[in-house]
Write a structure and sequence with these properties.
Keywords: Membrane, Transmembrane, Transmembrane helix. The two termini are about 35 Å apart. The protein has 6 helices and 8 strands, in the order βαααααββββββαβ. The radius of gyration is 26 Å and the shape is elongated. About 40% of the residues lie in helices and about 30% in strands. Strands 1, 2, 3, 4, 5, 6, 7 and 8 form an 8-stranded mixed sheet that branches. It is an alpha+beta fold and about 220 residues long. It has 2 domains: about 110 residues, PH-domain like (Roll); about 80 residues.
């Protein structure tokens, strides 16, 4: 028996958005996010308008009619650039970092392959932070699985037990970087695969372990 479960990319995008919204840190940082957005908007309004509202301070008391339009335009453009560079970029980086944290492992896995065979589960992927030739392969034998948990709140499956991790520096040439045996470890799979129900059902049948179903918010 060999079953391959392919990624449904529209489901992966949906679950990723849901996971970000449902992650405890996203809710905890709600007011920080709102305050940062207000700061950016206020800066984009106030700084570019200073040449018109504070001419006495900026142009030594000259009337706005005495100041050339090009000068005002250049100052305005420079102000917008300052806001984008020194306020907008840090806020953007903060939001991106927060989203990556709240998305959990979803962003980390590329070119995923999930297979159930007679011997067990094989899960391979290219890490998001690695070269294209590096490849990670998890092998979990059915007899090494001790617990199966499905969290419907986050739409994910967690497998607890003994597993073997193999990291290839070049998978095509079978160049192994290292191998690790993990005892009493955990692997998390978000259920964005085609026919995820069959994946869970087959794991139950092969391991003889009934899946524990929970519905709660977790990190």
């Amino acid at each position: 028996m060999t079953k391959e479960y392919k990624v449904n990319y529209s489901e992966k995008k949906r679950i990723k958005r849901k996971q970000i919204r449902n992650h405890p840190k996203w809710d905890k940082r709600k007011w920080v996010r709102y305050i940062l957005i207000v700061i950016v908007i206020a800066a984009l309004i106030i700084l570019p308008s200073l040449p018109w509202t504070a001419t006495d301070f900026i142009f030594d008391g000259k009337n706005i009619e005495e100041i050339k339009a090009n000068t005002l335009y250049n100052i305005c453009s420079a102000s917008v650039g300052i806001v984008i560079m020194f306020i907008g970029m840090p806020v953007f980086i903060y939001f991106r970092s927060l989203k990556n944290t709240c998305a959990d492992s979803i962003n980390y896995y590329l070119n995923e392959t999930l297979i159930l065979s007679d011997g067990g589960l094989e899960y391979g992927f290219v890490p998001n932070n690695s070269s294209t030739n590096q490849y990670t392969l998890d092998r979990i034998q059915y007899r090494g699985i001790k617990r199966l948990v499905v969290n419907t709140y986050h739409e994910r499956l967690e497998i607890y037990g003994d597993m073997k991790l193999t990291v290839y520096s070049n998978y095509e040439e079978n160049q192994i970087l290292y191998i690790e045996n993990h005892k009493d470890d955990k692997r998390r799979f978000y259920l964005y695969y085609e026919n995820s129900e069959d994946l869970i059902r087959t794991l139950e049948e092969k391991t003889g372990i009934k899946v524990q179903v929970i519905n709660k918010q977790e990190e």
